[in-house]
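Question (not urgent): is this output format expected?
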Amino acid sequence: MTLLRVPIFHCLRFCLSIWMCGVCGGLIAESVLAQTRYAQSEFPESIDIQPLPSERILDIPIDVAPSPALPGTVPESIVISAFEVIGSTVFSESDLATITAPYLNRPLTPAELFEVRSAITQRYVDQGYVNSGAYIPPQTLTDGILQIQVLEGQLTDINVDIVGRLSPNYVRSRLALAGSTPLNSERLLDGLRLLQLDPLIQNITAELATGTEPGTSILDVEVTVADTFDVELRTDNNRSPSVGSWRRGIALTEGNLLGQGDRIELEYLNTSGSDEVKLDYTFPVNARNGTIGWQTSLSDSSVIEDPFTVLDIQSESQTYGVSFRQPLVQTPNEELALGLRLTHQRSKTDFLSDVIGESVGFPSPGADADGRTRLSALRFSQEWTQTGNREVLALFSEFSLGLDLLEATVNDNAPDSQFFAWRGQAQWVKLLAPETLLLLKGGLQLSGDDLLPLEEFGLGGQQTVRGYRQNVLLTDNGFSLSGEVRLPVFRAREINGLLQLAPFVDMGGGWNHNGTNPDPNVLVSTGVGLLWQQGDRLTARLDWGIPLVDIDKRTSSLQENGLYFSINYRLF
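Got this back:
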């Protein structure tokens, strides 16, 4: 009889793999793999409703429109059978015909001819074309047809005076778009308002002056650059208890690194069982606020939650991405933008090093024998935001197409890098009364394939369904809904502090494409939060969520007891 000899650690690995996949696979996926999920675009916790910039940023002189004199010798009266308006790109022939119709086929005095010309000029001025106008050029009247020439105004020079470190071309190129020919004061004012809303600019004022030629204007602009360097300290308990829920971090941000409006952010995050470094850089590439970007994230972690510490589960991941974002519509009240990102993520999870003296790849869904997964994806996003004085509505959509690039994971039956998924988000903020807000938000993910844990939809935690631990449910498809009212309870005006009470209701559910659905797969909670905001320096939040759907607790952490906190403090 032949005796088959198998190394003991292979048997141990096989037995532990079956035990973990069947008994605690959900916990491991949540604790180790979920933390390396691709950083999807998220809405901020709240959207501030800010008043729009005042029209006072633009000073327009009254006598900008040209007023050429009526030429030559004119008879005491003439009869005009038709007016031919030349040079108008703003108004159609039918628009101008409504102005000239009362002056046809009757004797007209020179003063009445001036009236026709002035009426056309006034139509331009009323529509914001402040340096456009009409005049009657020297001509010989033929068949009773009188030509009226329109001189549509233009902006010939933009003089930019900047206090601070910012390229004048950053301002000039954006105002050149807003001041395109024919010059319109409302369009120019919108361009100035957009710059006033730009975080790089603290203040902007402009004066429109008459140019040296008829129909020309010069724009003089004064800009004060904002302080673009920021250091922020952050702490919360929004990580999985398996790697330590208490997270500490520091973020360094420079919004104008090279003086071109380019932004760089370096962030370090730490828990008792994890470390993460993020680097984001964006550079503006056109005057319509299009940007290219580079994103990098490096992390490593270990499970520190009993009873799994004895397994010595270690994980490391790297995420790289390049992106392009282009607003198609951009006004002070509305923005519609498209984005394209190519991302690549690598993760490796192993265990048993302390048990058998050798690391073994962890058998997570889609991983190879060494516990590695590689995911490449092309992501196409659409964003729309509408802002008013009392409300903000924001919508986000992203299609993700998995690619077989850069040694991406490809499996026959298990989840891999070849997938297609859609993710959407919506948020509505309504100002009900002074310092009283209603916030409604929701998220949805739909997938036509089994997904790697890196791409799954997570539920549980302060950002989705409070009252449950972070990412207690991870599924291919899912939804989340949340409603919250923020009520002012205390105002400390001497330190610009505001305390708000925030009762909330959260709900979410998830299901898998082919695999077994979690039980339960719907979470519902209610609770109350306290928010403290002190100027733009300090923001603190404490939430207590009460789960309405029972789910097994794994530890006695603050998260499992429905308590969440977050504190952000800006040093600069």
